[in-house]
Amino acid sequence: MREFFATRLMRRIVIFMLLTEFLWGLGSFFVLFTTTLTTYLVALKASPLVIGALSIAMSSLILAPQLFGRTLLNRFRRRKRAIILFHLTSATPYLIIPVAHHFLAPHYPGLQIALMIVLLGFSQIAIALAVPVWMDMQAHVIPLHLRGRYYGLSAFFYAGGGVLGGLGFTGLQRLLGPRVFQGAFFAAVACFILSMCAFALAPIPSSAFVHPPEPSIWSRIAKSARACHPRTDFGRLVLSNAVMTLAVSVVPFIMVYAQDKEHGLGYSGAMINGWVTICQALGSAGGGLLLGTLVDRIGPRLPWIVFTVLIPVAVLLAPHGHQWPLLALAFVLAGVLNTAWSVTGPAMLELSPPGDKSGYIAIANVVGFFPAIIGAMLMGLSVKYWGYPVAFTLAGAFGAAAFLVGLTLRARSTAHDETAAPETAGHT
To answer: Average pLDDT for residues 165-188, to the nearest whole number?
Structure first.
């Protein structure tokens, strides 16, 4: 890890970027979709189809707008500030939701649910605009041979904040009782703001946000789409990731299953929400750091294959969740999925063609747009009409399919590009 601190500039970039991840993770785990938000919807008596609708908003709306992130960012003269603006815009709905809860939830819970879905969908669109340029920025400031470890470390710090978020939620539950959800939303917003303050202090070179202009957004889309052909490793990774998106759609329903008193395990949301959040955070921290480090050492193939088997194993464990250690293990495995970028980030950056990475990252995520919608709808319908076993079986099958596609990735055959760390470029 000494390479991260080889120069003063590199040291400051890494420290403040990891602090950014830690604080954003702290906020995110206060309002984690697979635990807190799902439990909040259950408390408002939302049906599985409604939970599926929120899953669509959270998982799919962060994908499609990514194609326009670079074009929109280029309209700003100070692009680092624009990325901060995108993040703060994404955080704003988490401030509105608890205020609306005070007025709507007691008498109009259905309206509160609908408003929540709309606001969180807007939040995901805002953050989606930042994702591809954020990863392209990282490709500029983090040398290739360090990216796996950096993404693993970022996952570790993000999830380290998540552990504190889970403990904080448990403390809020004891302090605020039924008003715990409002407190969690406010706490999350405070952490998001602090995270962006940390990013503002990171001395990112201005060159990390600049690329030669391309003729049009459509030419960039066409160029990125050609890179996704299945004959390339990048194309096969994109395909496997899209199928994996179908499988991951089951994760919030594992939490619903754990609380379902009639057809599930019958746990109280108040009893398990904080601990399940901590389990997911621990999985995110340990799994992200391990898999990210493996990407550096042996390439992305084996770490991605390991990643694809997490859902099949988790859904096999969930029905045995009356034994608390097995349920905890299922959520630890599901937690690794919260930091998927520890594998997909360095893998996509390594396997995609050289040049501006934002277009390739965006198109790879857009390919997952329809699987995210279909998966969430399919899991919600399966739970409602056929029960949890059918939903879990489908998710396991999708995970197995992603595993089989992942097997076709070639092992790394060339040495890493020993790109030097940034030294003297102007800062933003």
So the answer is: 88
Dihedral sign for Cα 315, 320, 324, 326, please: negative
Q: Which of 249, 254, 255 is nearest to 379 (CA)?
A: 249
Record the pTM.
0.73
Q: End-to-end CA distance of the chain: give it in Å, rounded.
A: 26
Crossing angle of helices 388-406 and 233-248, in 10° steps, is 170
Token pair for residue 180? Answer: 């715990």
Residue 425 — pLDDT band, cuts 50, 70, 90? very low
Q: What is the CA radius of gyration of the chain?
A: 21
Residue 44, strand partner residues: none
Q: Which helix (H) or strand (E) holds 405?
A: helix 388-406
- Which pLDDT score, from 0 to 100, does residue 272 have? 76
Domain-located, residue 422: no
Determine the Cα–Cα distance for residues 71 and 49; give it in Å rounded to an integer. 35
Q: Which amino acid is at 208?
A: A
Distance CA 404, CA 243 (A): 10
The answer to whether 204 and 427 have CB atoms below 8 angstroms apart is yes
Q: Which of 149, 128, 151, 127 is nearest to 138 (CA)?
A: 151
How many domains, the chain?
Answer: 1
Residues ≥6 apart with Cβ < 8 Å to 106 = none
In-domain check, residue 19: yes
Identify the CATH number of the domain in which residue 129 sits.
1.20.1250.20
Largest CA distance in the chain: 63
Kindly give the residue spans of alpha helices, DSSP state H, lying in 260-337: 269-298, 301-308, 310-317, 324-336
What mean pLDDT, rounded, does the chain reach? 84
Q: Establish if 315 belongs to a structural domain.
A: yes
Helix (H, G, I), strand (E, B) or coil at 205: strand
CA distances from 351 to 69, 188, 302, 306, 416 (A): 21, 34, 14, 18, 12
Instruction: Determine, yes or no, domain membership for 168.
Output: yes
Domain enclosing residue 179, as ranges: 7-204+220-406
Q: 303: closest CA among 409, 178, 228, 425? A: 409
Where b means 16+ CB within 10 Å and e means fewer, 206-226 reads eebbebeebeeeeebbebbee
